[in-house]
Amino acid sequence: MAGQSDPHLSIFSPSEVEFVAEDEIVEIVPNIRMDALNMICGDFGPFFPQIPTKVPLWLAVALKKRSKCTIRTPDWMTVDRLTQVLEAERESPREFQPLPFHYIEISKLLFDHARDDISDAYLVRSLIEDIRDVRFHKVETGLETISGRTHAVKLKNLSAMEVNIVRPFMVRTLQAFYKHDSPQMIQQADNTGSRATPVTDRGPRRDLRRR
Amino acid sequence: MSSWDDDDSAAAAATDVELLKRAWRNEKAAPEILRFDSPLVSRVREQIQLLEETLDDFADSGVDDLVVSLYQMDLDRTLFLLRSYLRLRLQKIEKYTMHISRSDDLLSRLSQQERRFAKSCAEIMEKHLEQSVLSKLPYGYDSVTRQSLSSTEDDMVPEPQLDTFVFCKTKSDVGAFQLDDIGEEVVDLVADDLYVLRYKSIKGLVEGGRIDLI
Protein backbone atom coordinates (compact mmCIF):
# COMPACT_ATOMS: atom_id res chain seq x y z
CA MET A 1 0.00 0.00 0.00
CA ALA A 2 1.18 3.49 -0.66
CA GLY A 3 3.26 4.84 2.18
CA GLN A 4 3.24 1.61 4.12
CA SER A 5 6.27 0.23 2.44
CA ASP A 6 8.79 1.11 5.11
CA PRO A 7 9.02 1.67 8.84
CA HIS A 8 11.79 4.22 8.39
CA LEU A 9 10.50 7.15 6.48
CA SER A 10 13.46 7.92 4.31
CA ILE A 11 14.07 4.51 2.81
CA PHE A 12 12.88 3.74 -0.69
CA SER A 13 11.97 0.13 -1.31
CA PRO A 14 13.40 -1.41 -4.49
CA SER A 15 9.89 -1.46 -5.91
CA GLU A 16 9.61 2.25 -5.35
CA VAL A 17 12.91 2.83 -7.13
CA GLU A 18 11.61 0.72 -9.99
CA PHE A 19 8.39 2.71 -9.97
CA VAL A 20 10.33 5.90 -10.58
CA ALA A 21 12.40 4.21 -13.27
CA GLU A 22 9.27 3.10 -15.11
CA ASP A 23 8.67 6.67 -16.22
CA GLU A 24 11.83 6.66 -18.32
CA ILE A 25 11.18 6.98 -22.01
CA VAL A 26 11.91 4.12 -24.40
CA GLU A 27 11.10 3.56 -28.05
CA ILE A 28 8.63 0.94 -29.18
CA VAL A 29 7.50 -0.35 -32.54
CA PRO A 30 3.79 -1.09 -32.27
CA ASN A 31 2.05 -3.64 -34.43
CA ILE A 32 -1.39 -2.15 -33.95
CA ARG A 33 -3.19 1.05 -34.63
CA MET A 34 -4.24 3.03 -31.59
CA ASP A 35 -5.36 6.59 -30.94
CA ALA A 36 -3.24 8.99 -28.95
CA LEU A 37 -3.33 8.50 -25.19
CA ASN A 38 -3.92 11.69 -23.23
CA MET A 39 -2.91 10.61 -19.78
CA ILE A 40 -2.21 12.47 -16.58
CA CYS A 41 1.47 11.73 -16.98
CA GLY A 42 1.62 12.97 -20.56
CA ASP A 43 0.41 12.51 -24.09
CA PHE A 44 1.65 9.62 -26.17
CA GLY A 45 0.91 8.29 -29.61
CA PRO A 46 -1.01 8.02 -31.87
CA PHE A 47 0.27 4.57 -32.66
CA PHE A 48 0.66 3.15 -36.14
CA PRO A 49 1.96 -0.29 -37.07
CA GLN A 50 5.71 -0.30 -37.71
CA ILE A 51 6.16 3.37 -36.81
CA PRO A 52 8.56 3.80 -33.85
CA THR A 53 7.05 5.81 -30.99
CA LYS A 54 8.38 7.04 -27.68
CA VAL A 55 6.52 6.00 -24.54
CA PRO A 56 7.28 5.54 -20.84
CA LEU A 57 8.74 2.22 -19.88
CA TRP A 58 5.67 1.07 -17.94
CA LEU A 59 3.50 1.63 -20.98
CA ALA A 60 5.98 -0.16 -23.22
CA VAL A 61 6.04 -3.17 -20.91
CA ALA A 62 2.24 -3.24 -20.71
CA LEU A 63 1.95 -3.24 -24.49
CA LYS A 64 4.72 -5.80 -24.87
CA LYS A 65 3.04 -8.15 -22.41
CA ARG A 66 -0.03 -8.11 -24.62
CA SER A 67 2.12 -8.65 -27.69
CA LYS A 68 1.18 -5.30 -29.16
CA CYS A 69 4.69 -4.05 -29.81
CA THR A 70 8.39 -4.71 -29.77
CA ILE A 71 10.70 -2.61 -27.64
CA ARG A 72 13.75 -1.04 -29.23
CA THR A 73 16.82 -1.68 -27.13
CA PRO A 74 18.22 1.64 -25.88
CA ASP A 75 21.52 2.71 -27.45
CA TRP A 76 23.49 2.24 -24.28
CA MET A 77 22.39 -1.38 -23.96
CA THR A 78 24.38 -2.84 -26.85
CA VAL A 79 27.27 -5.25 -26.46
CA ASP A 80 29.72 -2.72 -27.94
CA ARG A 81 28.74 0.19 -25.70
CA LEU A 82 28.60 -1.96 -22.59
CA THR A 83 31.99 -3.50 -23.29
CA GLN A 84 33.43 0.00 -23.59
CA VAL A 85 31.81 1.00 -20.32
CA LEU A 86 33.05 -2.11 -18.54
CA GLU A 87 36.63 -1.50 -19.67
CA ALA A 88 36.46 2.13 -18.66
CA GLU A 89 35.06 1.14 -15.25
CA ARG A 90 37.90 -1.25 -14.70
CA GLU A 91 40.50 1.28 -15.77
CA SER A 92 39.39 4.14 -13.55
CA PRO A 93 39.23 3.00 -9.93
CA ARG A 94 38.01 6.31 -8.56
CA GLU A 95 35.43 7.27 -11.12
CA PHE A 96 32.10 5.94 -12.21
CA GLN A 97 31.31 5.89 -15.91
CA PRO A 98 28.27 7.81 -17.08
CA LEU A 99 25.33 5.47 -17.37
CA PRO A 100 21.62 6.16 -17.38
CA PHE A 101 20.49 6.90 -13.84
CA HIS A 102 18.10 3.97 -13.94
CA TYR A 103 20.21 1.57 -15.97
CA ILE A 104 19.75 -1.30 -13.54
CA GLU A 105 15.97 -1.02 -13.38
CA ILE A 106 15.56 -0.43 -17.11
CA SER A 107 17.71 -3.41 -18.03
CA LYS A 108 15.96 -5.64 -15.53
CA LEU A 109 12.51 -4.76 -16.83
CA LEU A 110 13.62 -5.28 -20.41
CA PHE A 111 15.19 -8.63 -19.61
CA ASP A 112 12.09 -9.78 -17.80
CA HIS A 113 9.58 -8.76 -20.44
CA ALA A 114 11.32 -8.14 -23.75
CA ARG A 115 14.29 -10.45 -23.85
CA ASP A 116 13.57 -11.47 -27.41
CA ASP A 117 13.91 -7.84 -28.50
CA ILE A 118 17.47 -7.58 -27.21
CA SER A 119 20.21 -8.82 -29.50
CA ASP A 120 22.75 -10.99 -27.68
CA ALA A 121 20.63 -10.77 -24.55
CA TYR A 122 22.75 -13.25 -22.67
CA LEU A 123 25.94 -11.33 -23.32
CA VAL A 124 24.34 -8.00 -22.54
CA ARG A 125 23.05 -9.34 -19.27
CA SER A 126 26.40 -10.68 -18.18
CA LEU A 127 28.11 -7.42 -19.15
CA ILE A 128 25.68 -5.44 -17.05
CA GLU A 129 26.20 -7.76 -14.10
CA ASP A 130 29.95 -7.30 -14.40
CA ILE A 131 29.56 -3.55 -14.59
CA ARG A 132 27.39 -3.62 -11.48
CA ASP A 133 30.01 -5.66 -9.63
CA VAL A 134 32.90 -3.38 -10.56
CA ARG A 135 30.96 -0.28 -9.64
CA PHE A 136 29.76 -1.62 -6.38
CA HIS A 137 33.23 -2.68 -5.45
CA LYS A 138 34.29 0.92 -6.01
CA VAL A 139 31.51 2.08 -3.73
CA GLU A 140 32.69 -0.27 -1.02
CA THR A 141 36.26 0.91 -1.37
CA GLY A 142 35.09 4.47 -1.23
CA LEU A 143 33.18 3.79 1.96
CA GLU A 144 36.41 2.83 3.64
CA THR A 145 37.80 6.30 3.11
CA ILE A 146 35.04 8.03 5.02
CA SER A 147 36.40 9.59 8.15
CA GLY A 148 35.55 12.26 10.67
CA ARG A 149 36.81 14.77 8.23
CA THR A 150 34.16 13.91 5.70
CA HIS A 151 31.50 16.56 5.52
CA ALA A 152 30.37 15.84 2.01
CA VAL A 153 30.63 12.94 -0.36
CA LYS A 154 30.53 13.27 -4.11
CA LEU A 155 29.20 10.31 -6.04
CA LYS A 156 29.20 11.46 -9.62
CA ASN A 157 27.41 9.11 -11.99
CA LEU A 158 26.14 6.71 -9.38
CA SER A 159 22.83 5.16 -10.39
CA ALA A 160 19.48 5.10 -8.60
CA MET A 161 19.53 1.52 -7.44
CA GLU A 162 23.15 1.77 -6.31
CA VAL A 163 22.30 4.86 -4.31
CA ASN A 164 19.40 3.07 -2.70
CA ILE A 165 21.48 0.08 -1.70
CA VAL A 166 24.24 2.12 -0.12
CA ARG A 167 22.07 4.81 1.40
CA PRO A 168 21.23 3.31 4.83
CA PHE A 169 24.79 2.37 5.65
CA MET A 170 26.35 5.53 4.31
CA VAL A 171 23.94 7.81 6.12
CA ARG A 172 24.45 6.06 9.43
CA THR A 173 28.21 6.04 8.99
CA LEU A 174 28.42 9.71 8.13
CA GLN A 175 26.09 10.51 11.00
CA ALA A 176 28.15 8.54 13.48
CA PHE A 177 31.39 10.14 12.35
CA TYR A 178 29.87 13.58 12.42
CA LYS A 179 28.55 13.08 15.90
CA HIS A 180 31.63 11.52 17.40
CA ASP A 181 34.36 13.31 15.60
CA SER A 182 33.56 16.92 14.87
CA PRO A 183 36.87 18.64 15.38
CA GLN A 184 37.25 22.42 15.26
CA MET A 185 39.05 22.20 12.00
CA ILE A 186 37.62 20.00 9.30
CA GLN A 187 39.38 19.53 6.02
CA GLN A 188 37.60 19.29 2.77
CA ALA A 189 37.80 15.75 1.48
CA ASP A 190 36.47 14.55 -1.82
CA ASN A 191 36.01 10.85 -1.38
CA THR A 192 34.32 8.46 -3.74
CA GLY A 193 35.11 9.12 -7.35
CA SER A 194 35.82 12.29 -9.35
CA ARG A 195 38.43 14.62 -10.60
CA ALA A 196 41.28 15.48 -8.29
CA THR A 197 40.29 18.57 -6.34
CA PRO A 198 43.07 20.38 -4.55
CA VAL A 199 42.67 19.91 -0.83
CA THR A 200 43.49 23.07 1.05
CA ASP A 201 45.37 22.51 4.25
CA ARG A 202 43.48 24.27 6.97
CA GLY A 203 45.08 22.87 10.02
CA PRO A 204 46.58 19.91 11.71
CA ARG A 205 44.97 16.62 10.75
CA ARG A 206 43.15 14.86 13.51
CA ASP A 207 42.88 11.17 13.00
CA LEU A 208 40.64 8.88 14.92
CA ARG A 209 42.73 7.17 17.51
CA ARG A 210 43.37 3.64 16.35
CA ARG A 211 42.70 0.92 18.86
CA MET B 1 19.57 9.58 -21.04
CA SER B 2 17.96 10.65 -17.83
CA SER B 3 14.91 12.81 -17.43
CA TRP B 4 17.04 15.55 -15.95
CA ASP B 5 17.86 16.69 -19.43
CA ASP B 6 14.26 17.29 -20.34
CA ASP B 7 13.34 20.30 -18.19
CA ASP B 8 15.08 23.39 -19.42
CA SER B 9 13.00 25.80 -17.41
CA ALA B 10 12.05 24.78 -13.92
CA ALA B 11 8.30 24.22 -13.83
CA ALA B 12 7.17 25.10 -17.30
CA ALA B 13 8.20 21.88 -19.03
CA ALA B 14 7.50 19.48 -16.17
CA THR B 15 4.17 17.72 -16.00
CA ASP B 16 2.21 17.69 -12.77
CA VAL B 17 3.11 14.04 -12.33
CA GLU B 18 6.80 14.89 -12.51
CA LEU B 19 6.32 17.70 -10.01
CA LEU B 20 4.42 15.37 -7.71
CA LYS B 21 7.14 12.76 -8.08
CA ARG B 22 9.73 15.35 -7.14
CA ALA B 23 7.69 16.48 -4.12
CA TRP B 24 7.25 12.84 -3.10
CA ARG B 25 10.96 12.10 -3.31
CA ASN B 26 11.90 15.22 -1.41
CA GLU B 27 9.37 14.44 1.26
CA LYS B 28 10.59 10.89 1.59
CA ALA B 29 14.22 11.81 1.92
CA ALA B 30 13.86 14.88 4.13
CA PRO B 31 13.91 14.33 7.90
CA GLU B 32 11.45 17.14 8.59
CA ILE B 33 8.13 17.92 7.04
CA LEU B 34 8.32 20.11 3.96
CA ARG B 35 5.93 22.72 2.64
CA PHE B 36 2.66 21.30 1.38
CA ASP B 37 2.31 22.01 -2.29
CA SER B 38 -1.36 22.90 -2.25
CA PRO B 39 -1.82 24.03 -5.88
CA LEU B 40 -0.04 20.96 -7.19
CA VAL B 41 -2.15 18.58 -5.13
CA SER B 42 -5.41 20.25 -6.19
CA ARG B 43 -4.42 20.10 -9.84
CA VAL B 44 -3.52 16.43 -9.55
CA ARG B 45 -6.76 15.66 -7.76
CA GLU B 46 -8.70 17.36 -10.53
CA GLN B 47 -6.92 15.37 -13.18
CA ILE B 48 -7.48 12.15 -11.27
CA GLN B 49 -11.17 12.90 -10.98
CA LEU B 50 -11.38 13.75 -14.67
CA LEU B 51 -9.69 10.51 -15.62
CA GLU B 52 -11.95 8.49 -13.33
CA GLU B 53 -14.99 10.00 -14.99
CA THR B 54 -13.53 9.36 -18.43
CA LEU B 55 -12.94 5.76 -17.51
CA ASP B 56 -16.53 5.40 -16.39
CA ASP B 57 -17.63 6.75 -19.75
CA PHE B 58 -15.32 4.33 -21.50
CA ALA B 59 -16.85 1.43 -19.65
CA ASP B 60 -20.28 2.42 -20.92
CA SER B 61 -19.30 3.22 -24.48
CA GLY B 62 -17.40 0.00 -25.01
CA VAL B 63 -13.96 1.36 -25.71
CA ASP B 64 -11.24 -1.17 -26.41
CA ASP B 65 -10.12 -3.08 -23.30
CA LEU B 66 -6.49 -2.36 -23.98
CA VAL B 67 -6.96 1.40 -23.99
CA VAL B 68 -9.03 1.22 -20.82
CA SER B 69 -6.41 -0.82 -19.03
CA LEU B 70 -3.65 1.58 -20.07
CA TYR B 71 -5.53 4.58 -18.76
CA GLN B 72 -6.29 2.63 -15.62
CA MET B 73 -2.57 2.05 -15.12
CA ASP B 74 -1.88 5.74 -15.52
CA LEU B 75 -4.57 6.46 -12.96
CA ASP B 76 -3.20 3.87 -10.53
CA ARG B 77 0.30 5.24 -10.80
CA THR B 78 -0.82 8.78 -10.13
CA LEU B 79 -2.98 7.66 -7.23
CA PHE B 80 -0.05 5.80 -5.72
CA LEU B 81 2.13 8.89 -5.87
CA LEU B 82 -0.51 11.10 -4.34
CA ARG B 83 -1.45 8.65 -1.61
CA SER B 84 2.14 7.93 -0.72
CA TYR B 85 2.91 11.65 -0.57
CA LEU B 86 0.00 12.31 1.76
CA ARG B 87 0.70 9.27 3.91
CA LEU B 88 4.38 10.17 4.27
CA ARG B 89 3.39 13.57 5.59
CA LEU B 90 0.87 12.09 7.98
CA GLN B 91 3.51 9.72 9.30
CA LYS B 92 5.83 12.63 9.95
CA ILE B 93 3.08 14.61 11.62
CA GLU B 94 2.26 11.68 13.87
CA LYS B 95 5.86 11.15 14.74
CA TYR B 96 6.62 14.77 15.57
CA THR B 97 3.19 15.93 16.57
CA MET B 98 4.23 17.90 19.65
CA HIS B 99 7.17 19.48 17.92
CA ILE B 100 5.08 20.61 14.99
CA SER B 101 2.21 21.89 17.08
CA ARG B 102 4.35 24.36 18.94
CA SER B 103 6.09 25.84 15.91
CA ASP B 104 4.24 28.33 13.75
CA ASP B 105 6.71 27.86 10.95
CA LEU B 106 6.14 24.14 10.85
CA LEU B 107 2.40 24.49 11.17
CA SER B 108 2.39 26.80 8.19
CA ARG B 109 3.84 24.01 6.10
CA LEU B 110 0.78 21.84 6.61
CA SER B 111 -2.41 21.85 4.66
CA GLN B 112 -5.60 22.77 6.45
CA GLN B 113 -6.65 19.16 6.91
CA GLU B 114 -3.20 18.26 8.10
CA ARG B 115 -3.33 20.98 10.69
CA ARG B 116 -6.58 19.60 12.05
CA PHE B 117 -5.03 16.16 12.12
CA ALA B 118 -1.95 17.45 13.92
CA LYS B 119 -4.02 19.24 16.49
CA SER B 120 -6.23 16.27 17.33
CA CYS B 121 -3.23 13.96 17.25
CA ALA B 122 -1.45 16.10 19.82
CA GLU B 123 -4.53 16.27 22.00
CA ILE B 124 -5.15 12.55 21.92
CA MET B 125 -1.51 11.80 22.61
CA GLU B 126 -1.37 14.17 25.53
CA LYS B 127 -4.56 12.82 27.00
CA HIS B 128 -3.38 9.25 26.63
CA LEU B 129 -0.03 9.94 28.24
CA GLU B 130 -1.61 11.78 31.11
CA GLN B 131 -4.17 9.14 31.81
CA SER B 132 -1.93 6.16 31.52
CA VAL B 133 1.34 7.35 32.97
CA LEU B 134 1.78 10.96 33.91
CA SER B 135 -1.01 11.26 36.41
CA LYS B 136 0.63 8.51 38.38
CA LEU B 137 4.04 10.16 38.50
CA PRO B 138 5.02 12.38 41.41
CA TYR B 139 4.55 16.09 41.09
CA GLY B 140 7.30 17.72 39.13
CA TYR B 141 7.66 14.85 36.72
CA ASP B 142 4.24 14.81 35.20
CA SER B 143 4.63 17.14 32.29
CA VAL B 144 4.20 15.87 28.78
CA THR B 145 6.93 18.05 27.42
CA ARG B 146 9.53 18.15 30.13
CA GLN B 147 11.28 15.42 31.97
CA SER B 148 11.13 17.23 35.26
CA LEU B 149 10.73 20.67 36.74
CA SER B 150 14.46 21.11 36.58
CA SER B 151 14.56 20.81 32.80
CA THR B 152 15.35 24.11 31.20
CA GLU B 153 13.53 23.32 28.00
CA ASP B 154 11.05 20.91 26.51
CA ASP B 155 13.24 17.89 26.36
CA MET B 156 10.60 15.22 26.06
CA VAL B 157 9.48 16.31 22.64
CA PRO B 158 10.90 14.22 19.79
CA GLU B 159 12.40 16.33 17.06
CA PRO B 160 13.48 15.36 13.59
CA GLN B 161 17.19 15.01 13.16
CA LEU B 162 18.07 17.80 10.79
CA ASP B 163 21.71 16.84 10.93
CA THR B 164 21.15 13.67 9.01
CA PHE B 165 22.86 13.16 5.67
CA VAL B 166 20.84 13.06 2.49
CA PHE B 167 21.58 12.22 -1.12
CA CYS B 168 20.89 15.05 -3.51
CA LYS B 169 21.40 16.46 -6.97
CA THR B 170 21.23 20.06 -8.12
CA LYS B 171 19.48 21.01 -11.27
CA SER B 172 21.86 23.78 -12.14
CA ASP B 173 25.30 24.80 -11.01
CA VAL B 174 25.23 26.30 -7.56
CA GLY B 175 28.95 26.83 -7.37
CA ALA B 176 30.82 27.08 -4.12
CA PHE B 177 28.40 26.45 -1.32
CA GLN B 178 29.10 26.85 2.35
CA LEU B 179 28.02 23.92 4.45
CA ASP B 180 28.61 25.10 7.95
CA ASP B 181 28.65 28.27 9.99
CA ILE B 182 32.35 28.82 10.26
CA GLY B 183 33.08 28.77 6.56
CA GLU B 184 35.38 25.80 6.82
CA GLU B 185 33.37 23.45 4.71
CA VAL B 186 32.81 24.57 1.18
CA VAL B 187 31.58 22.32 -1.56
CA ASP B 188 31.41 23.07 -5.23
CA LEU B 189 27.97 21.95 -6.35
CA VAL B 190 27.87 21.08 -10.01
CA ALA B 191 24.66 20.40 -11.90
CA ASP B 192 23.64 16.76 -12.15
CA ASP B 193 26.35 15.45 -9.84
CA LEU B 194 25.25 13.39 -6.89
CA TYR B 195 26.22 14.52 -3.40
CA VAL B 196 25.71 13.26 0.13
CA LEU B 197 25.38 16.25 2.42
CA ARG B 198 23.95 17.26 5.76
CA TYR B 199 20.32 18.13 5.34
CA LYS B 200 20.58 21.17 7.59
CA SER B 201 23.15 22.80 5.32
CA ILE B 202 21.07 22.54 2.18
CA LYS B 203 17.65 23.10 3.72
CA GLY B 204 17.32 26.48 2.06
CA LEU B 205 18.22 25.14 -1.36
CA VAL B 206 15.66 22.37 -1.04
CA GLU B 207 12.94 24.81 -0.08
CA GLY B 208 13.86 27.01 -3.00
CA GLY B 209 13.62 24.08 -5.36
CA ARG B 210 17.24 24.29 -6.48
CA ILE B 211 18.27 20.94 -5.08
CA ASP B 212 16.40 17.66 -5.32
CA LEU B 213 16.69 14.93 -2.75
CA ILE B 214 17.08 11.44 -4.12
UniProtKB/TrEMBL annotation, chain A:
It is found in: Nucleus. One of its GO terms (biological process) is double-strand break repair via break-induced replication. Keywords: DNA replication, Nucleus. Residues 13-71 form the DNA replication complex GINS protein PSF2 N-terminal domain. It holds the Pfam family PSF2_N. Belongs to the GINS2/PSF2 family. Component of the GINS complex. This is DNA replication complex GINS protein PSF2. It comes from Miscanthus lutarioriparius. The lineage of its organism: Eukaryota, Viridiplantae, Streptophyta, Embryophyta, Tracheophyta.
UniProtKB/TrEMBL annotation, chain B:
Keywords: DNA replication, Nucleus. GO terms for cellular component: GINS complex. It is found in: Nucleus. Signal peptide: none annotated. It holds the Pfam family SLD5_C. GO terms for biological process: DNA-templated DNA replication; double-strand break repair via break-induced replication. The keyword Nucleus applies. SUPFAM superfamilies: GINS helical bundle-like (SSF158573), PriA/YqbF domain (SSF160059). CDD domains: GINS_A_Sld5 (cd11711), GINS_B_Sld5 (cd21692). Residues 160-214 form the DNA replication complex GINS protein SLD5 C-terminal domain. Gene3D superfamilies: 1.20.58.1030. Residues 66-132 form the GINS subunit domain. Its main location: nucleus. The GINS complex plays an essential role in the initiation of DNA replication. Belongs to the GINS4/SLD5 family. This is DNA replication complex GINS protein SLD5. It comes from Miscanthus lutarioriparius.
